[in-house]
Amino acid sequence: MTIVRLLTVSLFVLLPYICHAVVVPSPYPADVIVLPDDGQKSILELIQNAAESVWVCSYELSDKKIISSLCTARQCGVDVRVMLEGNPYGSSTVNAESAKKLIGAGIAFSWSNPQFTSTHANYIIIDHRKIVLITLGLTESNFSQYRGYGIFIGDPRVVTETEAVFVADWQKKGYVPVCQSMFISPDNSRQRLLDLISNAKKKIWIQAHLLQDEEVMDSLIEAKRRGVNIKIILAEETPSTTILSLVNDINLKTQRYFSKQGIRIKLQQTPCPQGTMMIVDEKIAFIGSQGLDTQSLNDNREMGVVIAYSRAIKRLKWIFSHD
Known about the structure:
The chain is an alpha/beta fold. The chain has 2 domains: about 30-180, Endonuclease, Chain A (2-Layer Sandwich), CATH 3.30.870.10; about 185-320, Endonuclease Chain A (Endonuclease, Chain A, 2-Layer Sandwich), CATH 3.30.870. About 40% of the residues lie in helices and about 25% in strands. The strands form 2 sheets. Strands 1, 2, 3, 4, 5, 6, 7 and 12 form an 8-stranded mixed beta sheet that branches. A 7-stranded mixed beta sheet has the order 8-15-14-13-9-10-11, sandwiched between helices. Helix 8 (about 215-225) links the parallel strand 9 (about 205-210) and strand 10 (about 230-235). Helix 2 (about 40-50) packs parallel to helix 3 and helix 7 runs parallel beside helix 8 (about 215-225). The radius of gyration is 19 Å and the shape is globular.
């Protein structure tokens, strides 16, 4: 099917959402990666095939293969820039150690914009033409142990928006998002997630690390009351730290509360979900670094995208059903 034909067909699928005027799913082809199933192979290939530029933003970066690929790209003359969160949880030194390696290889490096409580967005921009947006940080443990998702997409609107956010955060300046396919915290994620939920007609399937925000919870309960079938999978972390135990306590409380509302929540430990994946009416899907908690929506730099590419959504549905 040609791109023109694909976009024409997609418009009919997207009309209910376009008419809502706030969230407009990207109709462009998109490839999905599922973690830990797919590993980092496709991300490494993307970096290795870059001809002009590789710009990276991540909450954490420690994966040795990705760091090596970035250093090799720089040696080949590619414009490589990396921006990392300056204060990851637990006063971890992993980003500082990676920064030393990157700077030593001649890679342009910056800490994330301190105006945000945390920069939790994870994405890579390749050659100003394509992005991969990931729900978790670029660490070996994330690629091997956690349920995460990534989207490869070349929609020019999405690429332009992502680059604009990267440049603004690199320069520690403000930016007002404009692309209606993008969910960017703290600017518009909350309202667009609420719009996505309120526009659902039949089904909402959610797999997320955390569900705590009252407004999002109320919106899901209202959707249930108007007849939307809702299924939710939340993280059940191995409680090795105080923060992970807190995640479990919050999700267990949410599970009990939603059970009283007739909404079933499954807690999943292996592989433990990170970020958020949401499928609405089996027609559109959202993938983002955001948790469904107040800090992610109001205070962090987070990034997600909503798509309508049927082949990608088919795989997301399969993974959700099997989890």
